[in-house]
Amino acid sequence: MRLPWRRTRPAGADDSYSLRRRLISTTLGSSIAVGLISTIIVLALAWKEVSDTFDDSLEEGARLVLALGEGTSVGGMPARDREAAQPSLRLDYQIVSRDGVVLRRGEDAPRRPFVDPGRKDDRFYDVRVDGERWRVYVRKHDALDFSVQIGQEWDDRSDLIVDMLASLAWPLVGLWLLLGVMNWWLIRRLLAPLENMARGMEDKSPSDLSPLVYDGRAREVQTVVTALNRLLGRLDHALEGERRFTADAAHELRTPLAALASRIQVMQRTLAADSPAAAQLQRLREDVARSTALVENLLHLARLDPESPDALRTEAIDAPALLEELVRVCAPAAAAREVSVTVACQVAMVTGNRDGLVMALRNLLHNAISYGRRGGRVEISATQAAAGVVLAVRDDGEGVSQADRERLTQRFFRILGNEVQGSGLGLSIVARVAELHRATLRFEEGLEGRGLGVLLHLP
Predict the structure, then answer these.
(1) How far apart are CA 45 and CA 61, in angstroms?
(2) Whole-number Cα distances in Å, 214 to 188, 190, 201
């Protein structure tokens, strides 16, 4: 049943993201947005204040011009006044008669009135004259038949805001860059406990379920570490129960299997060798032997599973003596299949856990003898490599396909069509021993390009 609030995504789609990048982009983006909004508000307030100040200047200019017009014969005034210098605050005036004639004007003022003199009230106007926008203040003289119109181009006002914005732009960009660097540094430092915890998890081996150690003070990280430690504790308890059950069951099975094998041997002695019952007992004895081997392998795996590479006890081992001992142990099986086992040892010493290496090499040698060619040849060798020692077992049998080689170390995997009895745990034990030694397990061609070669590269 699909939950309605869960979002489905296509198979293979990657929805992962970086928490650090999202925090940086979110904080920096929100800061830039707030900065832009603040800048807009500041510019709007500045525009209002500047406009009020300019309007006051227009009104004051109108009073001055009106006072000048009262003390001067307007009719005798020149048509234009030419300013000697360009002031920073440019105001253009017009003295307009009642009938709309411009009696006097500033240098940049238009020839026609800004505003129709027929308007009665004194106020501010926004007008367009000769294609230019003007802010105009009109003040009329009641005694004399003229009015004063003071205008300022809107471009002069907007230029001030543009200059202010240009002055603010680079400081804002610099502050945002500084904010981005500070956010990156602070977020990286604050997320360091999570990264340390992740590295601690990565450093753990598959069999190491000990609690994580966190000495920081971040409560959120401590909560995650506590939850993980509880999960690791429950998992360790469950795995320990499984290992204990496997070991106890295998140990308890050894005694009845050994007793059953003894009873079968006693029964075989009472029967003729060529009787049908003797043949049935022989097959039963082989089944018991296979079950005993399975129990032994389960016991080995139960002992190896809780081990870790860091806690593995290693020692210097006499390599020639080790290989000769393995050949003697497997000599009966080799004689039964008429297999010739040779030793090629080019190193004097090898470092590792003796019990583990004996177990792994014995399984490899037994597999080579059992699954190789009857009457064939098996070689066990120890050679010096660039960074360690390579222990190898090769045969000249039929070999294993590339597809099956990738599954050889899986537990209980056996190649179909093979009549040799086995449990499918031998190479799993070899792989576990290699993992504990931090060694590399590799499969390749056997002797003379035939069969199978298993190489254990010890660092």
Answers:
(1) 24
(2) 18, 14, 12
How is the chain split into domains, by residue range?
Answer: 18-80+88-190, 219-301, 312-458
SS (H, E, C) the chain: CCCCCCCCCCCCCCCCCCHHHHHHHHHHHHHHHHHHHHHHHHHHHHHHHHHHHHHHHHHHHHHHHHHHHHCCCHHHCCCECCCCCCCCCCCEEEEEECCCCEEEECCCCCCCCCCCCCCCCCCEEEEEECCEEEEEEEEEECCCCEEEEEEEEHHHHHHHHHHHHHHHHHHHHHHHHHHHHHHHHHHHHHCHHHHHHHHHHHHCCCCCCCCCCCCCCCHHHHHHHHHHHHHHHHHHHHHHHHHHHHHHHHHHHHHHHHHHHHHHHHHHHCCCCCCHHHHHHHHHHHHHHHHHHHHHHHHHHHHHCCCCHHHCCCEEEEHHHHHHHHHHHCHHHHHHCCCEEEEEECCCEEEECHHHHHHHHHHHHHHHHHHCCCCCEEEEEEEEECCEEEEEEEECCCCCCHHHHCCCCCCCCCCCCCCCCCCCCHHHHHHHHHHHCCCEEEEEECHHHCCEEEEEEEC
Higher pLDDT, 455 or 210: 455
Long-range contacts of 159-168 (CB under 8 A, 24+ apart): 160/50, 161/43, 161/46, 161/47, 161/50, 164/43, 164/46, 165/39, 165/43, 168/39, 168/42
* Separation between Cα atoms, residue 137 and residue 315, nearest integer Å: 103
**CATH entry, 312-458, from 3.40.50.1100, 3.30.565.10, 3.60.40.10, 3.30.1850.10:** 3.30.565.10
Domain 18-80+88-190 has CATH 3.50.50.60: no
- Rounded to the nearest integer, the mean pLDDT of the chain is 76
User: Does pTM top 0.90 for this prediction?
Assistant: no
Q: Report the C-alpha gap between 372 and 382 in whole angstroms.
A: 20
Give residue-wise pLDDT tens across range 170-179.
Answer: 887 888 888 8
Q: Which amino acid is it at 344?
A: A
Instruction: Give the angle 111-114-118 at the CA atoms, nearest 5°.
Output: 110
Summarize the confidence of residues 267-273 as an average pLDDT: 76
What is the mean pLDDT of the segment spanning 363-381?
85
Give one word for 200, left, alpha or beta, with left for phi > 0 and alpha for psi -120 to 50.
alpha
